[in-house]
Amino acid sequence: MPVTSAGVLLYRRAPLQVLVAHMGGPFWARKREHAWSIPKGEMEPGEPPREAALREFAEELGLPAPDIDYADLGTVRYASGKLLHVFAGEAPGFELDGFEPGTFELEWPPRSGRTAEFPEVDEVRWADAADARTLLVKGQLGVLDALERHLAAPS
Fold first, then answer.
1. Three-state SS across 70-137?
2. Domain named Nudix hydrolase: which ranges (predicted)?
3. From CA 15, how far away is CA 143, in angstroms rounded?
4. Which of 62, 45, 77, 56 lies closest to 9 in space, CA to CA?
5. Per-residue pLDDT tens for 15-65?
6. Which are the contacts of 42, defined by CB distance < 8 A and separation ≥ 6?
7. In terms of Cα–Cα distance, which of 12, 23, 127, 129 is closest to 68?
8. Distance separating alpha carbons of residues 138 and 33, to the nearest angstrom
9. pTM greater than 0.85 (yes/no)
10. CA distances from 81 to 9, 38, 51 (A)
């Protein structure tokens, strides 16, 4: 069974912007293009996807997801086979005040026997849709397509 994650894609319009987060840790430190993600993480066994998405948003950013309506955009599949279930919400007033990312431990340097703590996310910002296509990891580009289809659909 493939690994399944859930995430939140916040957006605001005029022009369309989405909230993206630069992944933390040494592997992503010097990368800019295709090194960003929507706030997301692995689902716990039996956890409803929406609950997982909101929990992971708070864990990664140290901020609660806004209390808004979320549209279920469905699931995108990475080339690796990993699945990402995405919930989108319009949040024009969402500010990043208080951003305090969660952390993870990693053996660093590799094979050194030492562990170091790194932020899950080291930067978060609003990006216009065109920039987001350059920033997001390639496996998540489908979430932008799904958002654009959702916004173009009749209400």
1. CEEEEEEECCCCCEEEEEEEECCCCCCCCCCCCEEEEECCCCCCCEEEEECEEEEEEEEHHHHHHHEC
2. 1-149
3. 17
4. 56
5. 999 999 999 999 899 999 999 999 999 999 999 999 999 999 999 999 999
6. 3, 4, 5, 52, 56
7. 12
8. 10
9. yes
10. 20, 18, 22
Beta carbons of 73 and 6 less than 8 angstroms apart: no
Nearest to 24 by CA among 89, 103, 109, 116: 103
Beta pairing class for 83-90 and 4-12: parallel
- CB neighbours (10 Å) of residue 145? 12
Q: Phi and psi for 151 in degrees, rounded to 5?
A: -70, -25
Integer Cα distance of 12 and 147 in angstroms: 11
> What is 4-152's CATH number, 3.40.1180.10, 1.20.1070.10, 3.40.50.720, 3.90.79.10?
3.90.79.10
Rg of the Cα atoms in the chain: 15
Best CA proximity match to 140, nearest among 58, 55, 88, 83: 83
